[in-house]
């Protein structure tokens, strides 16, 4: 995009506004060099300037980083500081005060608040609330390391940190915080080969397939996941949809044809997509899935994403095993996992 005097970014460049470092870079067509907004070097003519959201985009367009302001390092440093704050928030039982976060980041409170909001898309306070809710939703027990927490929040590398909150959370932050407020969700309870099943959907697709032992606990689980949604029992018009889903659970050959509307983080969606690529009758290990999504170190986070899968069998998390071939966990009980796999191997009854 061309620089113009109306562009707030050009104003930031003219003012050498270092609080914008990491938010974007500006590149100069004549020198083929890109800089952070706070670069102390002389200012180019506005007609020669192009803006990029990230240093990576500037590099991809054939520009080289300025040796004086080192725009890549600036972006990394800001990203690291904000990452560090996110880690601190994620590890704390109660949200740390703004002053403590700013001090840890080596910034003034005002500057920190501004940079954090710019990078994450919400204030540190809002982020802390969101993390706490995410923690409540997590179904797997056990401690989560900092790296895993970041993976789960959708940040699979520091460079990818520049995502807006709605991408990281899988839905706009306001909707997420409201627990599905204003959304109508239909649901049906029926039988499958592995017991009672609750099937639920929005207007866009299925949002939940849960197994359970009793209807009451299944309804409670649905309500806990969408506390502010308007839940309605499925009518006649959804009978075929429910029947097709049950048929798929009983023998999940081929691809599931109904649309899914599952809510999760960017990382979870990546894992769930990889799970859907495991063919009927085959299995993969958590490590292999981590490898396939390009995050080989994230085995544990992959296991957590499997545990957070809201759509049993449609997203076949039961096809993921430990590296030693043992079953590993299953959100709906290892017995159900064993039974589903047994049937897929053709060992019916
Ligand atoms: Zn520079």
TrEMBL record:
Query: Which Gene3D superfamilies does the UniProt entry name for this protein?
Result: DNA Methylphosphotriester Repair Domain, Homeodomain-like, Methylated DNA-protein cysteine methyltransferase domain, Winged helix-like DNA-binding domain superfamily/Winged helix DNA-binding domain
Q: Which cofactor does it need?
A: Zn(2+)
Query: What is the top EC class of this enzyme, as a single word?
Result: transferase
Which species expresses this protein natively?
Dichotomicrobium thermohalophilum
Q: Which InterPro entries match?
A: Ada-like_dom_sf (IPR035451), Ada_DNA_repair_Zn-bd (IPR004026), Bifunct_regulatory_prot_Ada (IPR016221), Homeodomain-like_sf (IPR009057), HTH_AraC (IPR018060), MethylDNA_cys_MeTrfase_AS (IPR001497), MethylDNA_cys_MeTrfase_DNA-bd (IPR014048), MethylDNA_cys_MeTrfase_DNAb (IPR036217)
The name under which this protein is listed is methylated-DNA--[protein]-cysteine S-methyltransferase
The terms under GO molecular function for this entry are:
DNA-binding transcription factor activity; methylated-DNA-[protein]-cysteine S-methyltransferase activity; sequence-specific DNA binding; zinc ion binding
A Pfam match: DNA_binding_1
